[in-house]
Amino acid sequence: RDPLKYQKQKRFCVGMREAKRSVLRGKAKCIICAPNLEECTAEGGLDDTMEDLIEACREYDVPVVFALSRNRIGKSMGKNIRLSIVCVLSAEGVHQEFKQVIKLTDELRRQWVVRQM
Question: Are 97 and 106 in contact (CB under 8 A)?
Answer without folding.
Answer: no
